[in-house]
Amino acid sequence: MIKAAEIVHSGTSILFVTLDSLRWDVAQSALAEGLTPGLAGLLPTGGWERRHTPGSFTLPAHMAFFHGFLPKLPQPTQPPRLWECRPPAFKTVPPETFVFEAPSLLKGLRMHGYRTICVGGVTYFSRQTPLGHVLPDLFDEDHWRTEFCSPERDSARHQVDHALELAETHRSRPLLLFVNISATHVPHGHYLGDSTDTWQSQHAALAYADPHLSRLITTLTSTQRWLIIVCADHGDAFGDDGYHGRGIAHPSVMTVPFTAMVRS
């Protein structure tokens, strides 16, 4: 069990990665086929946890995440949450849970000396539209460039390079470093030399992103202790039961891979 209260009070930095739109079955298949060796070496015994996301597309899922609501296990009984806003007096919170006295997790961490940094990926983090300001505005600082976005075939490399530079710059203080990996978000057909986005091309996109994710995690944890959280914000339908896309309550969209670990 991860004791998030102890982690935050000790000033341990937090890396939170979302693999945008990554389906649970794609993540599992890539792991089983040996296409994600970097992640395989980092994931706990048993690999990815199968979880249900609180949002069916990027905006609501991340708003939930940044306010303390991570994907839940598909079962009636849940383990203690990593963190939550101080609840009403009648509710008991397990001692392992970090309780923050603020309306959002990011503000709560800031009260404990953390600097919150966003390395965006998809355009919800781009500030290119009015709506594209909503998520970045939650952070102390945010970073987005066109080469971080999914049309760029080498987006994960650019994002990880930048995230590592930021981590080194702020090495002297605890961080919440958030990275939204866009490679697994459409368009990803280019990883198979096609203009069509499919289950198979998302599979290839994850295989492309794997060594960069591995490099991010192993570099950060080579000298410091970090809490690492990696999950998808939602999945994507590629013709499942006739459905396509996101923003729909279909199992292909609502079922996501998740893992959390403490590494040093």
Would you give an account of this structure?
- 28% of the residues lie in helices and 19% in strands.
- With 264 residues, it is α/β, with parallel strands linked by helices.
- It has a single domain, classed as Alkaline Phosphatase, subunit A, CATH 3.40.720.
- Strands 2-11-8-1-7-5-6 form a seven-stranded mixed beta sheet. Strands 3-4 form a two-stranded parallel sheet.
- Strand 9 and strand 10 form a beta hairpin.
- The model has no long low-confidence stretch (mean pLDDT 97).
- Keywords: Hydrolase.
- GO terms for molecular function: hydrolase activity.
- It comes from Streptomyces pactum.
- Pfam families: Sulfatase.
Q: Kindly identify the CATH topology.
A: Alkaline Phosphatase, subunit A
- Strand-residue fraction? 15-25%
Uncertain segments: none
Judging by the overall fold, what is the CATH architecture?
Answer: 3-Layer(aba) Sandwich
By DSSP, the count of extended strands is 11
Please trace the helix and strand order, writing H or E for each element. HEHHEHEEHEEHEHEEEHE
What's the CATH superfamily, by name?
Alkaline Phosphatase, subunit A
Please outline the major beta sheet: 7 strands, mixed
Radius of gyration: 17 Å
Number of domains: 1
Give the helix tally: 8
- The end-to-end span amounts to 16 Å
Coarse morphology? globular
- The CATH C-level name is Alpha Beta
Structural class call reads: alpha/beta
User: What's the overall average pLDDT, rounded?
Assistant: 97
Report strand order across the widest sheet. 2-11-8-1-7-5-6
The helix content, as a percent range, equals 25-40%
